[in-house]
Design goal:
The protein is of the alpha+beta class. The protein contains three helices and four strands.
Length: 90
């Protein structure tokens, strides 16, 4: 399953986030895969695509960052898969 993760850096401060990432890496548990990310130009939010077959791994990963980041996690699918699912309905 794919997830869009919106990270809001607490106090709009990216420094602690980048510091921890530099020191410890992404800190994802085995079975949770980082695919890609983008950061807004104000360095206040990060948008990530993550993939896992075990949604509980998302909670484990979030726990590693929740002191400096607020998370919104949304299950997503590709546009191609959504179009395929809609074939018989349109």
């Amino acid at each position: 399953m794919l997830y869009m993760v919106i990270e809001r850096f607490k106090n709009q401060d990216a420094v602690p986030v980048y510091r921890r990432f530099h020191e410890k890496g992404r800190m994802t548990p085995d079975g949770l895969e980082y695919l890609s990310s983008w950061v807004d130009t104000k360095l206040e939010r990060c948008y990530q695509i993550m993939e896992t077959s075990d949604p509980t791994l998302m909670d484990e990963w979030i726990e590693n960052w929740s002191d400096i980041v607020e998370f919104e996690v949304i299950s997503v699918t590709s546009s191609a898969d959504a179009a395929q699912a809609m074939q018989g309905k349109i």
